[in-house]
Amino acid sequence: MLPLIRQFLEQYNPYLKPFYSLAAWGLFLLLLWQVISLIAYVHKRAQKMHQIPCTSCQYFTYNFHLKCPVNPKIANTESAINCPDFHPRKTY
């Protein structure tokens, strides 16, 4: 089987060279597209996460075990973006 493949590649190598080039460029463009898509997704996700107001709420505690005593299940999640119990932290 291997000699048959080797013979085929030696015989049709001049015709396959453009295909190799197109395949390499195709893979490169696919990789580039994936990287750009990943960057766009991360940027969109970061914007969404920066809308979470928990850290500026007066009920937010910096305790690892209980971040919010009012709504502990939604603290620091996307569900907390429109939290009805949000009150801005008072700074003196």
What's the short story on this structure?
The chain is mostly helical and 92 residues long.
Q: Could you list some keywords that capture this structure?
A:
92 residues, mainly alpha, 2 domains
Structure notes:
There is one protein chain. By secondary structure, this protein is an all-alpha fold. It has two domains: 17-50; 52-92, no CATH class. Helix content is 52%, strand content 0%. The longest helix is centred in the first third of the chain and has 48 residues, at 2-49. The chain is rod-shaped, with a radius of gyration of 28 Å. The mean pLDDT is 92.
Proportion of strand residues: under 5%
Overall pLDDT metric: 92
For the largest beta-sheet, the strand count, sense and barrel status come to: none
Q: Outline the low-pLDDT stretches.
A: none
User: Count of DSSP E strands?
Assistant: 0
Termini distance? 82 Å
Task: Please count the helical segments.
Answer: 1
The proportion of residues forming helix, as a percent range, comes to 40-55%
Give the SSE order as H and E letters: H
Radius of gyration: 28 Å
Given the helix and strand composition, which structural class is it?
mainly alpha
Question: SSE layout and pairings?
Answer:
Blueprint: H1 2-49
